[in-house]
Specification:
The complex is a heterotrimer.
Chain A (H helix, E strand, L loop, with lengths): L10 H37 L16 H7 L10 H14 L1 H4 L21 H9 L3 E3 L4 E3 L1 H10 L12 H16 L12
Antiparallel strand pairs in A: 1-2
Helix pairs in contact in A: 3-7, 5-7, 6-7
Chain B lengths: L1 H39 L6 H9 L7 E3 L1 H7 L4 E3 L3 H15 L9 H4 L19 H4 L15 H6 L4 E2 L4 E2 L2 H12 L10 H17 L27 H16 L6 E3 L2 E4 L22 H9 L10 H12 L10 H22 L7
Helix pairs in contact in B: 4-9, 10-12, 11-12
Chain C lengths: L1 H5 L4 H29 L4 H18 L11 H11 L8 H23 L1 H6 L5 H18 L1 H4 L12 H14 L2 H17 L9 H20 L1 H4 L25 H6 L1 H26 L5 H14 L12 H9 L6 H22 L3 H15 L2 H4 L6 H38 L3 E5 L2 E8 L4 H14 L3 E11 L1 H11 L4 E3 L5 H5 L21
Classes of the chains: A mainly alpha, B mainly alpha, C mainly alpha.
Chain lengths: 193, 358, 522
C-alpha cells in the first residue's frame, strides 16, 4: 500500500479512479433501469392487465337505493360509518358469493349462494333480537354472530370468519338497522305484532 | 462422548418442552371443565339482584311478559322466553354488575369469572357508575335520566364511537370500562364475563321494552357543558371546598374511599383504586361527563341538590387528584402517576393539616 | 440471467437453484399466510402476494446473491398493532389502511436512501440492539399468538405489553375453543419434535401444519365445521397472479392516517434494520461485498410499489437467507424461482391451502417466535458489560415502550453506547506525564480535566501527552489552547504510531502528509 501513489502517480491510480467512477455510474444505471422496470410493471398491472382492482369503496348494488328508501336508512345519515356498514351488510346478504368470496365456495351459478336465498332482511332482524339464547339442539348459548358463522360453514359450504370480520359484523349492523326500522324490542317474537 | 452428551441434553430439552406443553394443555382442559361446571351451577344472587330479578319476574319459560310494562301501561307484551341456561347467565350478569369483584360472594373467583384478573384496584364495581344495578329508577319507577342505563346502552350499541374510532359493539364498550374506568385489562370478548353482562343488559332491555336504535333519556350521561352554567369558569378551589363539604365524609378527604371489613362502602375517586386518566370520567379528557354524573347521582339521597356549576367545580377538583395513568399513556407516565399517588397524599396530609378554611 | 443458466454446462447449477427455489417457496408459504392472518390481521392473499412480488422486486433491485425478501414477522406484528385501533381486522377499510401504512413506510425508507446521513445512521444500530429487539419481538410473538392459538377473537385494542398478554393467556386457557387448542398443540408438538432432526429441520413446519390440518379435517368431518368453529385460511380461488390495489387516501381517512404515522416510522425502521443487519451478516459469511445502500434502495423502492400490488411490505429474512446460504445459492435466480414456484403452488393447491386451520398458523408463529431467540446469537453479548446492558435495554424496551418506543430506544441506546465508549478515554499519570488515549471531546473532557487538575497541583512541570488521541472536537481544542498558555504545562509532540516507529529515519520537517489536526496552531 503506497500511500503517496494516489497523490503523485498519474497512470494506474487515475485509471482506477476512472474505473471506479464508471463502475458507480453503471451501478446507478442498472438500479435505475431495474426500478423503472418495476414501476412499469406496476403501471401495467393497474392499467394493462385487465385484472380487477382492490378498492375500499362500498359498491352500490341494484336494489340498494330502493332498500334505502323503503327502510329509512337515511335516518342514520346520508353517509357515515354506520350507513356504510349497513350497505356492506346489504351487499353481503344479497350477493354473499361476491362480497364474502373468502368464506364461501359457492359461485354465481350455485344455489343457495347468498343469505337472501333463505332469509329476508326482516327475518334477520327478528333473529337478531332473540339471539344470545340457549339452543337445546347445540346445548349452548348461541349469539347472532355465531349463527352467521354457522351459516357460512354449512349452507354456504364455506369457512368460519372471525367474529369481528366485517363479513359477520356488517350483517349484524344490517339486522340492527332493520330492527330499528321495524321498531322491534329485545326479544320481540316474529309472530306477535 | 461429546455428541452423545449434546444429544442427551437435546433430548432433555425436548422432553421438558413437550412436558410443559402437555401440562399447559391439561391445565386448559381442567379449567374448561371448571368453567362448564360453573355455567351449570345454580347462582347465588346478591341481595340487590335478588330483589331486582324477583321484581322483574325472571324465570325460565317459553315466553316472557314484562311485569314492569304490564304494571305501567297495562299492555301485555309477549316476548321470547328464557331457558334455564339463559336465566343463569342473566343472574350471573346481574351479580357481576352489582359486585364485580365478588366481595359479597362465597367463591369470588368462580362466581365472578375471575373478574379481579381484569381490574387493577380493589374498589371498582360496575354498580358504582351504572347505579341501580345498571337500571336506576326514580321513586315512581321511571328510569332516571342520564343514569348510564345498561338496557338503553344495548339498544343503542354498534354506533360510531369517536373515542375509539370504531362502530363500537356492546362487548367492546364493556372492555373500555375494564380498561379505563376500572383501570384494568381487557377480557376477551368471548369471555363469559362479557357475555353474561350482555345477557343481563339484554334482559333489562326486554323488561323495559326498549326499541333498537331509539334514543332514551336514561342512556349515557345527562352531560353538563359550560353553556349550562353562568360561565364564571370552573374553579378548582371552589371545587375543593364543595368536595370537603359534601363528598369527603363518604369518599374521604383525599378521595380514597371507605372500605369496611374488606368490603367497599364508598369507592375511591382518587388514588390507585380509582378510574384512570384516560377514563371519560376524567374532567381533563371529557369535561361534561363527570359533572353530569355528579349532578344526577350525588350525593346519594340528596340527588339534584348541587347546581351545574357546583358539579363542574367538584368534577374539576376530583379529576386533578392523583390517579393511575391510562392504558395508552406508556410506562413513564404510569410510573410518574404512581409516584404522585403514593408520595403526594401523605405530604399533603402532613402540611395541609388544619389549614382547611371554613 | 435465465438464458445463461440454461446453457448445458450450467444445467446442474440451475438444478440446484431450482431446488433452493422450491425449498424457499415451501418455507415461505406458511410464513406468508401466518404473518398476514395472525399477526397483521389481513386476508392471506396479501401475505402470498407479498411473498411473490416482494421477493421478485427485491431480487430485481438488490444485487446481492444471497437475499430473500418477502413478509417479515416483526413488520407484520407492527402492522397489526398499529392498525388494530383504526378499523376492524380483515375488512376492506383495514386493508386500505394497511396499504397506506406500507406506502408511508416505503416513503420513509426512501428518505433514508436519499438523505445519506440518515442511511449512514443505520450503521450505528449495533448487533446487541438488534438482537435485543429481535428477542423481545420473539417473546412477544409467542404471547401474541395465544388468542389465535385458542381460536379466540383478537381484541380490538392494542395489547402490546407482556403483562396484558399474560391476562389473555390465562383467559385463553379457560375460554378457548378446545378444538382449536387441540389443533394448535398437535401442530406445535409435531413441529418442535421434527425440528430436532437436522435433515428435515426446514420442513418441520410443513409437517406440523400437515398434522394440524389432518386433525382439523378429522374433527370437522366428525362434528361438522359449524360445531367446531375452527377458523381456516379460507377460499383463495379468486386469487390471480396479481391483484392491483390503491392505498386508502382521502380526507375522511386523514385522522386515522395521521395516527398511524408513528407505526409507519416503526415499520420503515424495522425493515431497514433487518435488511442492513442481514446484509452485513451475509457479507461476512459469503464473501461477496454488497453495500447496504443497495439493500435500502431495493427495500424502499419495493415498499413504495408493493401497496399497489396488494402485498405485505418486504425486508430481508434472516432464516430464509441463511437457508439460501447453507444450500449454496450462486445467483439471484433462486429467489426469483421461489416466487414463481410459490405462485404455481397457490394456483394448483389453493383448495388444500384453504383448509389449513388458523390455530396451526398461530402455532407456527410461536415456533418462529421462539426461533428468534437464538442463544448462540445472544451469548457473545454477555461477555462485555456495556453490550449486555444495551442488549437488555433493547429487549426490555420492546415490552415497556412498544415497537415504536423500542425502535427509538434502540437507536438512542446504540448512540449512547458509542458515545459512552468514547467518553471514557484511558488517562493515566506516569510521573509528571499525563497520557491520554482515545478522544478528547465534550463528553470525555470532564474526566481528563479532573485528572489534569490533580496533576497540575502536584507537579511543578507537567507534560500532557496526547499523541495517542484520535479525535479532538472544537471544545477539546479550546481546552488544549487554554492549558498551553500555562507555563508549567508542556504539550507532548503529537505523533502518529507510524511516525513514532519511523522517528529516527524520518525527520520532522520532511513530513508531507497533510493532517487536518497538524495544521492547527496551538
Amino acid at each position: 500500500m503506497d500511500e503517496n501513489a494516489a497523490v503523485t502517480a498519474d497512470g494506474p491510480a487515475a485509471r482506477a479512479r476512472r474505473d471506479a467512477r464508471s463502475g458507480r455510474r453503471r451501478a446507478v444505471m442498472k438500479a435505475t433501469i431495474a426500478a423503472a422496470f418495476a414501476i412499469g410493471f406496476v403501471v401495467w398491472a393497474h392499467f394493462g392487465s385487465g385484472r380487477p382492482t382492490f378498492t375500499t369503496d362500498v359498491r352500490s348494488e341494484p336494489g340498494w337505493e330502493g332498500f334505502r328508501a323503503a327502510y329509512g336508512v337515511d335516518s342514520f345519515g346520508i353517509d357515515g360509518y354506520f350507513v356504510r356498514a349497513v350497505q356492506n351488510g346489504y351487499n353481503l346478504v344479497h350477493h354473499t358469493h361476491k362480497y364474502a368470496d373468502r368464506f364461501t365456495r359457492r359461485t354465481e351459478r350455485d344455489r343457495p349462494n347468498a343469505c337472501s336465498d333463505c332469509h329476508s332482511v326482516e327475518s334477520l332482524a327478528y333473529a337478531f333480537v332473540i339471539s344470545d339464547r340457549f339452543d337445546p339442539r347445540l346445548n349452548k348459548r348461541i349469539s347472532f354472530e355465531e349463527r352467521v358463522m354457522r351459516c357460512y360453514a354449512q349452507r354456504l359450504d364455506g369457512f368460519i370468519p372471525t367474529i369481528y370480520d366485517p363479513a359477520v359484523r356488517d350483517i349484524r349492523m344490517l339486522a340492527r338497522m332493520v330492527a330499528h326500522h321495524l321498531q322491534l324490542g329485545e326479544g320481540t317474537l316474529e309472530a306477535s305484532p | 462422548m461429546k455428541p452423545s452428551a449434546s444429544a442427551s441434553r437435546k433430548l432433555l430439552r425436548l422432553a421438558l418442552l413437550v412436558g410443559a406443553l402437555l401440562a399447559l394443555y391439561l391445565v386448559a382442559v381442567a379449567k374448561q371443565d371448571e368453567r362448564q361446571r360453573i355455567r351449570e351451577r345454580p347462582v347465588t344472587l346478591t341481595p340487590g339482584c335478588e330483589e331486582k330479578l324477583a321484581r322483574y319476574q325472571l324465570a325460565a319459560g317459553d315466553i316472557y311478559v314484562s311485569p314492569y310494562i304490564l304494571e305501567r301501561t297495562g299492555r301485555r307484551i309477549v316476548k321470547q322466553g328464557y331457558s334455564e341456561e339463559d336465566v343463569r347467565a342473566i343472574q350471573r350478569g346481574c351479580n357481576i354488575i352489582d359486585d364485580l369483584q365478588g366481595q359479597r360472594a362465597a367463591d369470588p373467583a368462580g362466581e365472578r369469572w375471575n373478574a379481579t384478573r381484569f381490574v387493577r384496584g380493589t374498589h371498582t364495581s360496575c354498580n358504582h357508575c351504572h347505579q341501580g344495578i345498571g337500571d336506576k329508577q326514580t321513586a315512581d319507577g321511571t328510569p332516571q335520566i342520564g343514569s348510564l342505563s345498561l338496557a338503553a346502552s344495548w339498544a343503542m350499541a354498534d354506533m360510531y364511537d369517536r373515542f375509539t374510532g370504531l362502530l363500537l359493539p356492546y362487548e367492546l364498550r364493556q372492555m373500555q370500562c375494564y380498561i379505563n374506568s376500572s383501570n384494568g385489562y381487557k377480557p376477551n370478548i368471548a369471555d363469559d364475563l362479557i357475555r353474561d353482562v350482555t345477557a343481563y343488559s339484554r334482559f333489562l332491555a326486554a323488561v323495559l321494552d326498549l326499541r333498537f336504535g331509539n334514543r332514551y333519556p336514561e342512556q349515557g350521561i345527562d352531560e353538563i357543558p359550560v353553556s349550562s352554567t353562568l360561565k364564571r369558569g370552573d374553579d378548582y378551589v371552589r371545587g375543593n371546598a364543595l368536595y370537603q363539604q359534601r363528598c369527603a365524609h363518604c369518599h374521604g378527604p383525599q378521595g380514597f374511599g371507605t372500605v369496611v371489613d374488606g368490603k367497599v362502602i364508598y369507592p375511591a375517586v382518587a388514588g390507585p383504586n380509582a378510574f384512570n386518566l384516560q377514563s371519560r370520567n376524567n374532567f381533563a379528557f371529557v369535561s361534561t361527563i363527570l359533572p353530569g354524573f355528579i349532578c344526577r347521582n350525588m350525593p346519594p339521597g340528596e340527588e339534584g341538590s348541587l347546581s351545574n356549576q357546583d358539579c363542574r367545580d367538584i368534577a374539576f377538583y376530583i379529576s386533578n387528584l392523583p390517579r393511575p395513568a391510562g392504558d395508552r399513556q406508556g410506562p413513564l407516565m404510569a410510573l410518574w402517576q404512581q409516584l404522585m399517588m403514593r408520595v403526594m397524599p401523605p405530604l399533603i396530609r402532613f402540611f395541609d393539616n388544619g389549614d382547611s378554611r371554613p | 440471467m435465465i438464458t445463461g443458466a440454461l446453457a448445458p454446462r450450467r444445467l446442474g447449477e440451475f438444478g440446484n437453484e431450482l431446488l433452493i427455489g422450491l425449498t424457499l417457496a415451501i418455507v415461505v408459504l406458511p410464513q406468508a399466510i401466518a404473518f398476514s392472518t395472525t399477526l397483521a390481521g389481513l386476508p392471506p392473499y396479501l401475505g402470498i402476494y407479498g411473498a411473490i412480488w416482494g421477493v421478485l422486486l427485491t431480487a430485481l433491485l438488490n444485487p446481492s446473491r444471497v437475499f430473500h425478501g418477502g413478509p417479515n414477522t416483526a413488520m407484520c406484528a407492527a402492522m397489526g398493532v398499529t392498525l388494530l385501533p383504526v378499523a376492524p381486522q380483515f375488512g376492506a377499510d383495514y386493508v386500505g389502511y394497511a396499504l397506506t401504512l406500507i406506502l408511508m413506510a416505503g416513503l420513509i425508507q426512501t428518505a433514508f436512501l436519499l438523505i445519506r446521513p440518515l442511511g449512514r445512521a443505520l450503521d450505528f444500530v449495533s448487533e446487541p440492539v438488534v438482537n435485543g429487539m429481535i428477542c423481545g419481538i420473539g417473546l412477544y410473538l409467542i404471547f401474541r399468538s395465544f388468542p389465535a392459538f385458542a381460536g379466540l377473537p383478537i381484541n380490538t385494542q392494542v395489547e402490546w405489553r407482556l403483562w396484558i398478554s399474560w391476562q389473555t393467556f390465562l383467559a385463553s386457557l379457560e375460554i378457548g375453543n378446545i378444538h382449536a387448542i387441540n389443533i394448535g398443540v398437535i401442530t406445535l408438538l409435531v413441529t418442535v419434535v421434527l425440528r430436532q432432526f437436522a435433515a428435515i429441520r426446514n420442513l418441520a413446519i410443513l409437517f406440523g401444519i400437515a398434522a394440524g390440518t389432518l386433525y382439523s379435517e378429522f374433527i370437522n368431518a366428525r362434528y361438522g365445521l359449524a360445531n367446531t368453529l375452527v377458523e381456516q385460511i379460507a377460499d383463495l380461488s379468486s386469487m390471480g397472479f396479481v391483484y392491483p390495489s390503491v392505498p386508502l387516501f382521502s380526507q375522511e381517512a386523514m385522522p386515522d392516517i395521521i395516527s398511524i404515522i408513528p407505526g409507519a416510522i416503526t415499520l420503515a425502521l424495522l425493515g431497514l434494520f433487518q435488511t442492513v443487519i442481514a446484509m452485513r451478516r451475509m457479507n461476512r459469511k459469503s464473501g461477496q461485498f454488497v453495500d447496504s445502500r443497495h439493500g435500502i434502495f431495493a427495500d424502499s423502492v419495493s415498499n413504495c410499489l408493493l401497496p399497489f400490488l396488494s402485498s405485505l411490505p418486504t425486508c430481508a429474512s434472516f432464516n430464509r437467507m441463511s437457508l439460501m446460504h447453507d444450500m449454496k445459492t450462486r445467483s439471484r435466480l433462486a429467489a426469483v424461482l421461489s416466487a414463481v414456484i410459490l405462485l404455481a403452488l397457490v394456483s394448483f393447491f389453493g383448495d388444500l391451502i384453504a383448509i389449513i386451520p388458523i390455530p396451526a398458523m398461530a402455532a407456527i408463529i410461536m415456533v418462529l417466535g421462539a426461533a428468534m431467540i437464538q442463544w448462540s446469537d445472544i451469548r457473545p453479548h454477555f461477555q462485555h458489560r456495556a453490550e449486555a446492558i444495551v442488549f437488555f435495554g433493547s429487549f426490555a424496551s420492546v415490552h415497556l415502550f412498544g415497537l415504536f418506543g423500542a425502535v427509538i430506544c434502540g437507536s438512542l441506546l446504540a448512540l449512547a453506547y458509542a458515545k459512552w465508549e468514547k467518553a471514557h478515554p484511558s488517562i493515566h499519570l506516569e510521573g509528571n506525564v499525563l497520557r491520554v488515549r482515545g478522544n478528547i471531546y465534550y463528553g470525555s473532557l470532564p474526566l481528563i480535566e479532573s485528572l489534569y487538575h490533580q496533576a497540575h497541583a502536584r507537579f511543578d512541570e507537567l507534560v500532557v501527552d496526547f499523541s495517542a488521541v484520535h479525535h479532538i472536537d472544537p471544545e477539546g481544542i479550546r481546552w488544549l489552547a487554554e492549558i498551553s498558555k500555562n507555563d508549567k504545562v508542556h504539550l507532548a509532540d503529537r505523533r502518529s504510531g507510524h511516525e513514532r516507529r519511523t522517528e529516527q529515519r524520518e525527520p520532522h520537517s520532511q513530513q508531507t502528509r497533510t493532517d487536518r489536526r497538524r495544521r492547527r496552531d496551538f
